[in-house]
Write a structure and sequence with these properties.
The protein is mostly helical and 328 residues long. It has two domains: 83-271, no CATH class; 286-327. Helices cover 83% and strands 0% of the residues. It has helices spanning 10-60, 76-132, 144-179, 182-200, 208-269, 273-311, 320-327. It is rod-shaped, with a radius of gyration of 53 Å. The termini are far apart.
């Protein structure tokens, strides 16, 4: 029996060896991970123990006078708190600057609103005065040239008021555009400098976790600043689009009413380029009609003188010529 030949199929043997190899590799891989994890834990524990011993030795180190030279050592917690305090100061400074920009932007907006109110109040006052210059029984006593001159002065005053508001708008819009772009970019650049300094590790040692945390906080700050800049830019564009309603249409409405009154005055008093020709033609016609009446009147006067001389017994030779003239 013991010497009996054992036959093993090659396919079964190959499968068995393959399965054994797979299980062996899985076992070795698992052991490798366990050993690696244990070694990492041991390394961390050793590092912590070494750090603790170093801290303890440095804390126990005394000078000749018995004072602990604590300036040689700074605990990690204290360094982390220092980093936190420094970042908080930076964040507060950025927030104050951003709030100051918000206040300035709102103040500029109020300046434009007040300027628009003053413009409309001035135009309303001028329109009221224009309405008083319409031809009426009271205004007929005034010199028409004075009325025309005052209408021109009111038009000039309206244009000056509009030009002044446009000048204020140009200055204000320029500063508002800066608050919507370059000044906000300066704050974002300051945030980028903080992140860059942390990564350079020149002054203080920032850990990777700290850099990651503060970078995320900086990204949130930048996002808020960009949102404010975008909102301000939208308001600036809306103001630019509303400038037509704020100035041009107001001035156009004033000029329209002033021109109507100007035309009424020209028609009432026969002034202006459009009415001078008609007035001159009318004057010439009146002059022609006057001449037709004046010549017969002069002849009637001469005839009266002639008859007076006959009645008074004047010499007939002296009045012969006029007599013949009127008989013919």
């Amino acid at each position: 029996m013991l010497g009996q030949h054992v036959h093993v199929e090659m396919a079964w043997l190959c499968d068995y060896v393959h399965a054994f190899r797979v299980k062996l590799m899985e076992f070795l891989q698992c052991e490798k991970e366990v050993q690696l994890d244990d070694s990492e834990k041991a390394a961390r524990m050793g590092a912590e123990m070494l750090s603790y011993e170093l801290d303890d030795r440095l804390r126990k180190h005394n000078t000749r006078k018995g004072l602990v030279r604590s300036e040689w050592y700074e605990p990690r917690l204290k360094q982390i708190m220092s980093h936190k305090s420094k970042f908080e100061r930076h964040a507060v400074a950025i927030a104050k600057k951003s709030a100051a920009q918000d206040g300035r932007f709102d103040a500029l907006m109020d300046t434009l609103i007040e300027g628009d109110k003053r413009l409309r109040a001035t135009i309303d006052e001028l329109l009221h005065r224009v309405s008083q210059l319409k031809p009426s029984a009271e205004s007929n006593s005034r010199n028409p040239e004075d009325i025309m001159s005052e209408l021109k002065g009111l038009s000039r005053r309206a244009r000056d008021t509009g030009d002044e508001f446009k000048r204020v708008y140009r200055e204000v819009s320029k500063e508002m555009a800066a608050l919507s772009g370059p000044l906000v970019e300066q704050l974002i650049a300051a945030n980028s400098d903080v992140t860059r300094i942390q990564k350079e590790q020149k002054h203080e040692g920032y850990s990777g976790a700290e850099i990651e945390f503060y970078s995320a906080e900086i990204a949130k700050l930048d996002e808020g600043l960009k949102a404010k800049a975008a909102d301000r830019l939208v308001q600036v564009e809306e103001l630019e689009a509303a400038m037509t309603n704020m100035v041009e249409r107001v001035l156009e409405e004033f000029e329209k009413q002033r021109n109507e009154v100007y035309e009424e005055v020209c028609i009432a008093y026969g002034l202006g380029k459009e009415h001078v020709v008609a007035r001159r033609q009318l004057r010439e016609k009146v002059h022609e009609l006057s001449e037709l009446v004046t010549e017969p009147l002069s002849k009637i006067v001469e005839l009266e003188e002639y008859l007076s001389r006959i009645i008074t017994g004047a010499n007939s030779d002296e009045v012969c010529t006029p007599k013949d003239q009127y008989i013919t």
